[in-house]
Amino acid sequence: MRSADVRRHLGTPLTTPVYPPRATRFTDREYLNVVYRTDPDALRAVVPEPLEIDEPLVRFEVMKMGDVEGFGPYLECGQVIPVRHGAERGAYLHAMHLDNFGATAAGRELSAYPKTTGSPALFVEHGALVGTLDYGSQRVATATMPYKWEPLDPAQAREQITVPTYAVKIVPDYTGALQVCDLVRTEITDITVKGAWTGPARLQLNAHVMAPLADLPVLEVVSASHLLADLTLAPVHPVHDYLTD
Questions:
Q1: pLDDT above 70 covers what percent of the chain?
Q2: Which residues face 210 on adjacent strands?
Q3: Contact 241, 188 (CB under 8 A)
Q4: Residue 245 pLDDT level (bands cut at 50, 70, 90)
Q5: How far is Cα 17 from Cα 134, in angstroms, rounded to an integer?
Q6: Strands 188-198, 150-151: pairing kind
Q7: I need a labelling partner for 206 at 20 to 30 A (CA). Which of 11, 74, 86, 134 fits?
Q8: Which residues pair with 178 in a beta bridge?
Q9: Active site residues
Q10: Using an 8 Å Cβ cutoff, are 197 and 149 in contact?
Q11: CA dihedral 204, 233, 195, 220 (to 10 degrees)
């Protein structure tokens, strides 16, 4: 393999396709979102500057990807924190657990999503929409709401998932020193909301050192939604360089 051939690849193994080098289109992406109030001090300890917090809120989300270009169906679960960056309101991506290696690698290498392993699930059982996260054999999170309980305005649903999102991109060099350390921004584009519902919800988080979602404890459930949408994820771009602070 010539040097020019090596440079055409985005990652290794050189002979194994892992992820496509382009924006990803999602069809029938299903969400269970539970927004809850948490400990303000715990929240401030994990949200990086220059992002700011107005209210101590967290969105726990389970997403069932019905059809994803380049990856196929998979599930994802995590925590998203409402923040401000200057005058812009958005959301900080705090934790994401997936059951698909290609999507995990693409999220970390091409973008800045804080993706790691896990076994999420989203299903209907006895009239309840149930979202769970397991890490290995251990249950980390369980969320429930009544299935399609009350219609939600599609405009409100769109607003929930199209706010700009922020994450931290870290790339070390061969010595372990930081080569890239940026706050990056992205957003969802080309969205079609195909269904949206709201209703009461419950959320239980269990302590786990490799999936520390419970470090942001549930003090009060504020709202919940169940959404179905088609959308595209735009590429990330840097908005703050921590190495120049």
A1: 100
A2: none
A3: no
A4: confident
A5: 28
A6: antiparallel
A7: 74
A8: 172
A9: 115
A10: yes
A11: 20
Per the CB < 8 A criterion, the answer to whether 229 and 193 are in contact is: yes
Terminal Cα distance for the chain, rounded: 41
Q: Read off the pLDDT of residues 206-235 as tens digits, 9 standing for 90 and up.
A: 999 999 999 999 999 999 999 999 999 888
What average pLDDT does this structure show over 138-143? 98
> By C-alpha distance, which of 98, 86, 80 is closest to 43?
80
Task: Tell me the two tokens of residue 99.
Answer: 């059951």
Pairing, β 88-98 against β 165-172: parallel
Give residue 124's pLDDT: 98
Provide the 3-class DSSP secondary structure of residue 41. helix
Tokens of 176: 């372990």
| pLDDT at 96 exceeding the cut of 80 | yes
Q: For residues 70-93, give the mean pLDDT.
A: 96
Separation CA 195–CA 30 (nearest Å): 9
Please check whether residue 47 is in contact with residue 53, taking contact to mean a CB–CB distance below 8 angstroms.
yes
Q: CB–CB of 81/90 below 8 Å?
A: no
